[in-house]
Amino acid sequence: MLSRTADHLYWLARCTERAENMARLLDASYQMSMVPQPLAVQNETWRAILALNSQEEAFAQAYDAVNAENVLRFTVVDAANPSSIYSCLRAARENAHAVRGTLTAEVWETVNATWIELRQQDVDQILARGVSEFFDWVKLRSALTRGVTFGTMLRDDALHFIRLGGLLERGDNTARILDMQYHILRNGDEGASDFYRWGALLRSLSAFQVYRKVYRDAITPARVAELLILRKDLPRSLHSCADGIARMLPLIANSASAETQRKAGLLHAKLHFARIDDVLAGGLHEFLTDFMDCIYEIGAGISHDFLLPA
């Protein structure tokens, strides 16, 4: 496969997944903001979202204050922000358009329809009726794109690059969401509001019902971390993403990719044999930071081995 084609397919998946994960992160924060709390605490949560994505400086250039409405505008519809949902879905559509001949008609039509529907939505209307409905729409469109991709495309290199891009982005964003929310929540007061916050975090990663099925008990920080990090059978867990990356890379391997495969294998082994007690004892933030660093190195390796030069 040509590097240019692989590059477009890889970033089509990453941009689509990034839009969905931004929606999940914002939805979790929005749901938690509904719990009674001081305004300063709410604003710190929104500030944490900017810090998590290294967007404080770009935000400060466009907005005067950090609050829910400004952060939502910046991360949802600001075309000047390359990580906003609007920019990600636009980039996904542009990448899909560049490789229309490689994609099936169903995949192209789904991606294109998503972009058309997004352009017809008004940000003031979105904010007025509640952003959760919009976030559900973003998650649904991402799921439709993913489903039609797996349901119609040939199991060849094109699908492998799409799958690889989605897994890298998903693993990175799950780690970011968990890192931010865990440290906000772990010191929360026990009670109904604390349960509501933990539930919102799990729902943001489509893991609430799974948690109930696996543990059948009260929601605890350690079990939330274990589920989202170590459960291989949870699609959005770090272990599941690392497992998928390690399996995809040999399918597209070339003479230059051995080191990238080795790093992916090491990351997978670390998660496969880890125990949550050891993870928490060594520091969850440190563990998640190390995971994100590994994902970054693997992504850089993929770009070097297979894709267009930066």
What is the beta-strand fraction?
under 5%
Element-by-element helix/strand order: HHHHHHHHHHHHHHHH
Spans where pLDDT lies below 50 across 5 or more residues: none
Main β-sheet, in a few words? none
**Can you give the helix content as a percent range?**
over 70%
Number of strands: 0
Mean pLDDT: 89
Shape: globular
SSE-based structural type: mainly alpha
Number of helices: 16
How far is it from the N-terminal to the C-terminal residue, by CA?
18 Å
Cα radius of gyration in angstroms = 19 Å
Notes on the protein architecture:
- The protein is mainly alpha-helical.
- Helices cover about 75% and strands about 0% of the residues.
- It has helices at about 5-35, 40-50, 55-60, 70-75, 85-100, 105-120, 125-130, 130-150, 155-185, 190-205, 210-215, 220-230, 240-250, 260-270, 275-280, 285-305.
- It is globular, with a radius of gyration of 19 Å.
Brief account:
With 310 residues, the chain is mostly helical. 76% of the residues lie in helices and 0% in strands.
Strands, helices and their partners?
Elements: H1 3-33, H2 39-52, H3 56-62, H4 68-76, H5 85-98, H6 105-119, H7 123-129, H8 131-152, H9 157-185, H10 192-204, H11 208-215, H12 221-230, H13 238-248, H14 258-272, H15 276-282, H16 284-306
Salient structural properties:
16 helices, mainly alpha
